[in-house]
């Protein structure tokens, strides 16, 4: 329950306060319990010793009373139990030890049963606190009550000091633990405060900034490293997003500008303009815009991780059906092992195969080769052509958005520059990879996706 607006409840305390409070409370309970146990142990030891010695003194005094029925003075047999009295059944003092001579009978309850001692702590006038043992005994002269007492003034006087020292030790120990825990937690959380301050100072323009990693090899250094990894990923994502927005703006501006210019020129001379030609040019620009928008939607879905149902597919059969779907400019040779099944989203993989086959056909001189095989836990698809190939320094650049090499622009001026980008994203969405590999002649693309082992 939250009281006083919730500000005093532990859920609103800082970590340092919560840890300190919990540790302090636990230590207080342990110290208090330990002090009580120690007090009980000490007092138990003292009173246990008095109890045993009192039994011996009373037993000796009872034997003396039964045998001799003393009157006057009785001898002291224990140096601590010096307060001895013998009282008859009527309560009259019969005999006493020397320190008790002249003192009246002790005003204490009479033992109810014969032969069973009664132990008590009483206050005796002029003697202070006394540990007293009383016993009723049967003698030839009648019932006698014997008392044996030991002064415990020294113990009771030091008992208060002992309790005070124990209480002080509990308080000082609790305060010391609270201070040590608070200081330790503060020092332990200092890197967190520093990381928080550095994170608050980071803005959208703070490129390349990372938080300082503590020198200690502990959870705090792991936290700082994890923060830096996350910041690196976030920075890379933001960089890709900015580049993507810039590229999209540029790619969309070109066909829109061309379309607008063609229409404006046509409208300036409407009577002499070839309107069917204008319509065909406008339709070509519209087709290019539609292609760009469609590819961007696919990229957006793949980047957002939209869940799409997957099914078991024979990769070799999929390649053969896609290669035979329409006539090609150059022949395609397919070598696919049987029974290579993968769990994929079929229409996504068809898009990837289409992009690779169209790209190979566009750049091939006379032939395209496609192979499907297994390599360990992966299914491997290779698409190779006999064209000019890709320079080593351009093998990653071809996967960038809107990046088209000079040869590609010459062979296909209507492309969007997103085909290979989409293909790699599809491969990654299936837990695989797509890369441009070394080849003796032409370009060679290698796709790896996990096999379906079920």
TrEMBL record:
CDD domains: HATPase, HisKA. GO terms for molecular function: kinase activity. Residues 186-239 form the HAMP domain. It catalyses: ATP + protein L-histidine = ADP + protein N-phospho-L-histidine. PANTHER family: SENSOR HISTIDINE KINASE TRCS, SENSOR HISTIDINE KINASE YKOH. It comes from the Bacteria. InterPro entries: HAMP_dom, HATPase_C_sf, HATPase_dom, His_kinase_dom, HisK_dim/P_dom, HisK_dim/P_sf, Sig_transdc_His_kin-like_C, TCS_sensor_his_kinase. Keywords: Kinase, Membrane, Phosphoprotein, Transferase, Transmembrane, Transmembrane helix, Two-component regulatory system. This is histidine kinase. It is found in: Cell membrane. The chain crosses the membrane at residues 161-185. It is an enzyme of class 2 (transferase). Its main location: membrane. Residues 247-453 form the Histidine kinase domain. Its EC number is 2.7.13.3.
